[in-house]
Amino acid sequence: MTSHPVVLDTVDVPARRGLxxxxxxxxxxxxxxxxxxxxxxxxxxxxxxWRRALRAYVCGLDTSLDQVERARQLREVRGKLEFMPWxxxxxxxxxxxxxxxxxxxxxxxxxxxxxxxxxxxxxMRVGGEAYLLHPTTGDAELRLTVAQxxxxxxxxxxxxxxxxxxxxxxxxxxxxPSDQKIV
Length: 183
Fold this sequence. Notes:
Blueprint: H1 13-24, E1 34-38, H2 44-52, E2 57-62, H3 65-75, E3 81-85, E4 98-104, H4 110-123, E5 124-135, H5 139-148, E6 151-159, E7 165-172
Parallel strand pairs: 1-2, 1-4, 2-3, 4-5
Antiparallel strand pairs: 5-7, 6-7
C-alpha cells in the first residue's frame, strides 16, 4: 500500500485482505452473534467472520452491485451468510438487528459519515459494538463525528502497519428520547 488515502474500491486484493485481516483479528466475534459488514467488497471479510463465529448470522452490504453479485455467487449461504446492495445512505436492514457492525469508512465526507453512523446506531442492539475502519488522515474529525452521532466509549483498537488505516471501536449508547419513534 501507499501513503495515499485508503479507497477500498481501488485497493488491490492482497492489500484489501491485509486490512480485512486487521479488522477480523480485532473484532470480537462470538457464536450466535448477528454481524453486519458495511462496504464488504467481494464478501471475503464477511465470509471469514462467519467461519470464525460458529452459528452466527453475517450480512454484508456494498454499494457496488458487481461486488454484491460476486459475493453472492462465491460465498452466500441463505439464512446464514447473505449479501445485499445499499444506497450508501440508509442501511436496508431492520432496527436493533445486529450485535456488531463493521463499517469501512473509506474517504467518506464527514457529513456522510455522520449519517451512516446514525443509521448504524439504528440497526445496533443495545450494548452492541461498532468497528470503524477509516483512513488515519481524518481520525480526529471522525472521532468528533462518532461522538456527535451518539456513540460512547470510542477507542482505537488497531492501526495498519503502514499507518494508513485505523480501526476504532465504539459502543452503542442507549437511545435518547429524541431517538424514539412516535407510533
